[in-house]
Amino acid sequence: MTLPRFSPDSDPGPDFLGLLQRLERSPSWDGVPADATQITHGTTVVAIQTLDGVVMSGDRRATSGHLISHRTIEKVFPADQHSGVAIAGAAGPAMEMVRLFQLQIEHYEKVEGRPLSLDGKANQLSQMLRNNLPAALQGLGVVPIFAGFDEKLQKGRLFEFDITGGRYEEKDFAASGSGSLHASTVLKLRHNGKLSTDEGIDLSIEALFHAADEDSATGGPDPIRGIYPVVAVINSSGFTRIEDSELATRTNTLVEKIAGERS
Amino acid sequence: MNMPMYVSPEQLMKDRADYARKGITRGRAAIVSVFSDGVLLCAENPSNTLRKIGEIYDRIGFIGVGKYNEFDQLRVAGVRHADLKGYSFSREDVDARWLANQYAQTLGQYFTHEMKPLEVEIAIAEIGEETGSDQIFHLLYDGTVMDTETFVVIGGETETVKTRLEESWKSNQPLTDILNQAVSALAGPDRTLKADDLEVAVLGRGNGRRAFRRIENEALDEHLSEN
After folding, report:
1. Does residue A224 belong to the interface with chain B, where contact is any CB pair within 8 Å?
2. CA nearest neighbour of A17 among A91, A86, A132, A101
3. Is residue A32 part of a domain?
4. Residues of B in contact with A77 (CB under 8 A)
5. What's the pTM?
6. In sequence order, what DSSP letters do the residues of A196-208 get, joined into one string?
7. Which of A111, B75, B129, B135 is the most buried (most CB within 10 A)?
8. Is A43 known to be catalytic?
9. How far is B3 from chain A (nearest CA, A)?
10. A92 lies in a domain?
11. Pick from B72, B77, B123: nearest CA to A107
12. How is A88-153 classified by DSSP, letter by letter?
């Protein structure tokens, strides 16, 4: 491995994926059999627009077919200081995509000397999904959510995607994964367009709670093992992950509220 | 038959070295120095867009003087190399010593095999976990590598600037002190350098994973006015 040098007409510029391509080291899942029972899948993730940014969250379960394969996987990651990406779908390719996406953004920033715009980042993710389309058609689909604080517009923004790389900006909330239908219903009914960060965190916990209640592939809160969803807040001061202890308290409050409504 | 004119290897190398050195000494000097909480990178650079200092990796910074397009190419190659290594292995496997060796090979290759040597002098710095474990590598146009744990001056008038800085330099100083010493060493007795004439960045131990931060505008003014 020596210092990579390129002639001006083949220089990849600030594009890390282009660099991998030129060195013939792009990851590929071509020809993988699409037996869904053998492939680890991540399930439900949501993102919610709040008054000062966005809240992203995801459950902790991964499944292979009808079996639970992992109880504590993470599906919400920082993309950079002011944005995050949450993944649903085939876990292996999804994790690799997140790693490459984080690297791509940082690589651009270091080479160019300034960060990509939020739209630029969303477009990058879109291109990565499009490149993954052959694998997606073999059963290794990845459907992420991208959300961040747009420093130019001074507000939070959300993007949903599909496996072809289609990019759809949402206003109030976004959800992806097997439990997203149920999570979306909760979000749709509760989101009033002017949530505080606190309310956003509670709403994301509630949406995942109900998704886990209806969808076997989505994991609910597990107080015995101390497993709670991953919740992250993104605002002008950056990406902050909420502590498990705080999530435990908030989950308890929610459970008590639901129990109270039934008694 | 025409015989090519004989030039002794000594003469050839000397000519190349003189050529490279001439290009480098025309420019301004730059200083890399350790301080109590990390490493300071400071260059005299009136341009706000054509940078001499850059971030390579989490704990590694770059500074170059000489011909802009040549050292910038080296900076970008370093970023690519570091990101590739971190992607293939792990982030903690990327270190400055290894990067310095790669730079040395490339510079040496240019010096002996290409039409002309690169007219650059660069330094790369890496901060360690605690004070005293920082490293600075200084690379010359011919691939010579030197390492130091204190400070290094690169570019034009290095000897004079170095003598000036040596007078005041101490280990374990706070950032403001070392920055002011570096700036007055760069300026010399007859000039004063303002924030606009400088490009300053630090690799700070308290900055999280990516230790590199630029110090610009008001923040830089504040440090300079505390003198």
Report:
1. no
2. A101
3. no
4. none
5. 0.93
6. -HHHHHHHHHHHH
7. B75
8. yes
9. 34
10. yes
11. B77
12. -EEHHHHHHHHHHHHHHHHHHHHHHSSPPPHHHHHHHHHHHHHHTHHHHHTT--B--EEEEEETTT
For residue A26, pLDDT beyond 90? no
CA distances from B107 to B4, B16, B31, B55, B72 (A): 27, 13, 21, 20, 13
List CB contacts (< 8 A) between B105 and chain A: 2-3
pLDDT in tens, A94-119: 999 999 999 999 999 999 999 999 99
Of A4, A103, A113, the CB nearest to B87: A103
Mean pLDDT taken over chain A = 93
Cβ separation of B83 and A2 shorter than 8 Å? Answer: no
In this prediction, residue A104 carries a pLDDT of 96
Tell me the CATH architecture of domain B28-225. Answer: 4-Layer Sandwich (3.60)
Three-state secondary-structure class, residue A63: strand
Residues in chain B: 227
> Domain of A139: which CATH number?
3.60.20.10
What is each CA distance from A262 to A54, A250, A256, A259, B27, in whole angstroms?
31, 19, 10, 5, 78
Q: Is the residue at A198 inside a domain?
A: yes
Write down the pLDDT at residue B1.
66
Produce one character per residue of B90-108: b if its CB has 16 or more CB atoms within 10 Å, e if not: eeeebebeebbbbbbebbb
Structural domain boundaries, residue A169: 40-262
- Whether A35 shows a pLDDT value over 80: the answer reads no
- The answer to whether residue A16 neighbours chain B at the CB level (below 8 Å) is yes
For chain B, which residues make up each domain, given as ranges?
A: 28-225
Question: In terms of residues, how long is chain A?
Answer: 263
| β-pairing verdict for B30-35 and B151-154 | antiparallel
Q: Is residue A15 part of a domain?
A: no
Residue of B nearest to A104 (CA): B83
Q: Which of B51, B54, B102 sits opposite A3 (nearest CB)?
A: B102
Distance from CA of B75 to the nearest CA of A (A): 8
Output B56 or A25, whichever has higher pLDDT: B56
Helix, strand or coil, per DSSP, at residue A40? coil
